[in-house]
Amino acid sequence: MTVRRARWVIGNWKMNGSLAANATLLAGLVTAPRADAARLAVCVPYPYLAQAQAALAQSAVAWGAQDLSAAASGAYTGQVSATMLTEFGASLVLVGHSERRQYNGETSALVAAKAAVALAAGLTPVICVGETLAERDAGRAQVVVAEQLAACADVLRDGGARVVVAYEPVWAIGTGRTASPSEAQAMHAAIRAEIARLGGAAAATSLLYGGSVKASNAAELFAQPDIDGGLIGGASLVAAEFLAIAAAA
Ligand code: 13P
């Protein structure tokens, strides 16, 4: 029996945007046809959640955040809780993006705790995994990704098909150097096998590729059997480009 997995195209704006630029971008996104086969979403900086909510509420585009706190509330200066995100209508949240692992010292254990909190709040956690260039060159790519996934074993088991995993090789992020469709497919197949080994809903879990996805290379990547869509950085900041990527999914 073939399992139909949700296809997603998610924009990660990272620390980009302004009220004026977002207004133009969001106005472009609401033209996305509702019949699109892929679920469209944008993950915006916290100050713009209200703007995304106002602009996208009547649209087919979902919105979310790029991180959340592992704590529920209290004395955690600078952090944002899952409940705050849901109050703004967010339906998904990235966890463990490589930029947070790298610049904010997030460990796989913290990433797992954040994913669990997101799940409990009814958010879709998009768990980001991926190896550095040094790790790939050392032949350790699959080991590194398997370790990142293993830390999230409970979440993968408990969340089943509600969890989304994004494979983002660090060397392909913002570099213009995309993993080849066969490299990406090989890792996605390995990720799916690892999720099965950990007791997750492997066949039903959406696995997204991220790293220099553009309208010009999206179709080839998304045609791979284990790639169920994309997590898009730079190209998500231009509505026409992002919608062209969505159309490829
Ligand atoms: P780019 O698409 O800019 O390479 O970024 C990928 C990414 O990190 C998305 O989360």
What does this structure look like?
With 249 residues, the protein is an alpha/beta fold. It has a single domain, classed as TIM Barrel, CATH 3.20.20.70. It is 41% helix and 15% strand. It has helices spanning 19-29, 49-56, 82-87, 98-103, 108-120, 133-137, 141-151, 153-159, 181-197, 215-222, 239-248, and strands spanning 8-12, 39-43, 61-65, 92-95, 124-129, 164-167, 206-210, 229-232. β7, α10 and β8 form a beta-alpha-beta unit. α1 (19-29) packs parallel to α2 (49-56), α1 (19-29) packs parallel to α11 and α10 runs parallel beside α11 (239-248). The longest helix is centred in the C-terminal third of the chain and has 17 residues, at 181-197. 1,3-dihydroxyacetonephosphate (13P) binds at residues 12, 97, 168, 173-174, 210-213, 231-235. The site of 1,3-dihydroxyacetonephosphate has 14 residues, from β8.
Spatial strand sequence of the major β-sheet: 1-2-3-4-5-6-7-8
What ligands can be seen in this structure? 1,3-dihydroxyacetonephosphate
Q: Which range best describes the helical content: under 10%, 10-25%, 25-40%, 40-55%, 55-70% or over 70%?
A: 40-55%
Radius of gyration: 17 Å
Describe the global form.
globular
